[in-house]
Design a protein that fits this description.
Hypothetical Protein Mth938, Chain: A, 8 strands
Length: 146
């Protein structure tokens, strides 16, 4: 019998026990801006089902966000969000990712604010993760039927 093999097995079991005991499970807190569900034409934010495009900050829901066509957005369209001093704005553009004007990205960057564009479902997931990390994030979520 090879004793080295037995010691390796014991060490592996011991390492596994230590590793397993360090796992922590936490439950995500649900706030009024936690996005709970996304489907074509609707987003459930907190306990409210929203069927119109909205903007969110870590603290508030801005219903019926009135924006022009994605390709025509300007910094002025984002004024309601800028008061919360986000470090990042997520732009969920509906079922497909549509890029905003480069000048919008540059003008927000000059203010120290990043703009990330993605489809709305991805923006919702990303928003929840960043909010749970305590990041200063805002989101504009375009709600469209597919």
């Amino acid at each position: 019998m090879d004793h080295r093999h037995g010691n390796e097995s014991a060490r592996t079991d011991k390492q596994r026990t230590v590793s397993d005991s360090s796992l922590k499970f936490t439950r995500h807190q649900i706030s009024k801006v936690t996005i709970r569900h996304v489907e074509p034409g609707a987003i459930k934010v907190g306990d409210k089902l929203v069927r119109d495009s909205i903007a969110l900050t870590a603290d508030e829901i801005i219903h019926e966000w009135q924006a022009s066509v994605i390709e025509e957005l300007t910094e002025d369209d984002f004024e309601p969000l800028l008061a919360s001093e986000p470090e990042l704005i997520l732009l969920g553009t509906g079922p497909l990712s549509v890029f905003p004007p480069r000048e919008l990205v540059f003008s927000l960057a000059r203010r120290g604010i990043g703009l990330e564009t993605m489809d709305t479902a991805a923006a919702c997931r990303t928003f929840n993760i960043l909010i749970s990390e305590g990041r200063r994030v805002a989101a504009v979520l375009i709600v469209k039927e597919e």
